[in-house]
Amino acid sequence: MADLGAAEIAVSGPPSEPPRTTTLLAKNPILDGPILSTLLKLAAPNIVAQTAGISVVVAETSYIGILGTAPLAGIALMFPLITLMMTMSGGAMGGGVASAISRALGAGDTQRASTLAIHALTIGISVGATFSVLLYLFGHHLLTAMGASDRVLEQALAFSSIWFLGITLIWVMNTLVAILRGTGNMTLPSAIVFSSALCQIVVGGSLSLGLAGMPQLGIRGIAIGQMTGFSSSVLIMGWFILSGRSRVSLKIPNFRYEVEMFADILKVGALACFYPVQSVLTVGFFTSMLARFGTEVLAGYGIGARLEFMLTSIAFATGVASVPMVGMAVGAGRIVRARRVAWTGAVFSAFGVGIFGVLIAIFPSLWVNFFTTDAQVRATSAQYLAIAGPMMAFLAIGISLYFSSQGAAKVLGSVVAQTMRLAFVVAAGSWLTTGDAGYQSFFVLAGSAMVVFGLFTAVTVWATSWGNERKAIPAVA
Known about the structure:
Elements: E1 6-11, E2 20-25, H1 29-32, H2 35-67, H3 69-106, H4 110-145, H5 150-163, H6 167-182, H7 187-209, H8 219-242, H9 259-272, H10 274-291, H11 295-331, H12 335-362, H13 365-368, H14 375-388, H15 392-407, H16 412-434, H17 439-463
Helix pairs in contact: 2-3, 2-7, 2-11, 3-4, 3-5, 3-6, 3-9, 3-10, 3-11, 4-5, 4-6, 4-9, 5-8, 6-8, 7-8, 10-16, 11-12, 11-14, 11-15, 12-14, 12-15, 14-17, 15-16, 15-17, 16-17
């Protein structure tokens, strides 16, 4: 992407006067390019990265399926915690980081953007280390409260004993990704995420199944593979930024921490963190309600939920691309363009996710049969996908608009929408539990909650002011 900045050109004056210079703003494709094509150009590398992430999900679920039903159920219980750390560090706090940096660059302040990057890394290391300690000490009690017991609990603990120790790596990795994405650089972090995914697949598969002469570590091998991939990502991105190749620098003379810089990141990132927390609470509460129907139902839902993760990756990729587009537009005072970016991304996400959601709802075996041969698990997963698949388009709308709201530093409405989804699931789920409803009714509840979330997010974004349009100031001699 072209750098923001200025270009000086010589202007001829009278023969008795020296040439004058006029400062012209350099054209920035993110601010001035066509909205849809620019959004898709930025989203394309993210889609590649998300495809790599999907490949990891598919590969790991396949490995775990070979290990047995108990490991499948164990990883289903761990999945909300895995999702929490990944989305909180990448989508929530990472969105706050990308938003602050892109708004600074939109206003033409590269020095501020670099200073924000250092503050962001400080936040990432501190928060990641805190979660690592807390979950390592109390994760056993949390998993038990979520309904884990016997072999399922044993498998979940085997995975978490390694994974919890590496949470700081996850936060640092996603903070570095957010810093680069905030500058408009989507290609490098996506390429690194892709390479990390390949590392996870190879290392995790080899260690979990004992391939190529490696020790067979079962579900622990999956966790080691993930941490190996995260470590390589941190090293490469850290080197890139420190080498001076990025639009932001971590080498700032006379650097000092400033409360205002932390506040600029946290006013979006800290509030946005409630979004994935509530999302995970929703999934966790839903999973705990399903646990009473047995291991096969829980495993079947877990396979369906991973498809949900895969499809909404389209919305995630588009949403992440919208953060610098919206942020730079807001920083430059171009509010009309910022809002057009948001709605364009939401429509594209709903369309892309909706097509695949309906397809898998009609032909669930395309997904389900890939992971298990257990007839009951297949049937349960197919039922979930038939009900919830088409509703994932609404989930995509909410996710895409959530990221756009981050770019505008107006994320409260999206967080409230997630609160509405959680409240809906808790209230309706409690009622279904009291009435001794079957698990199919809970699948209907899951799909209905997606609709509530998507529509409420759209309404709050539409009703929230993102500021006043600023008239462009013409260049002066």
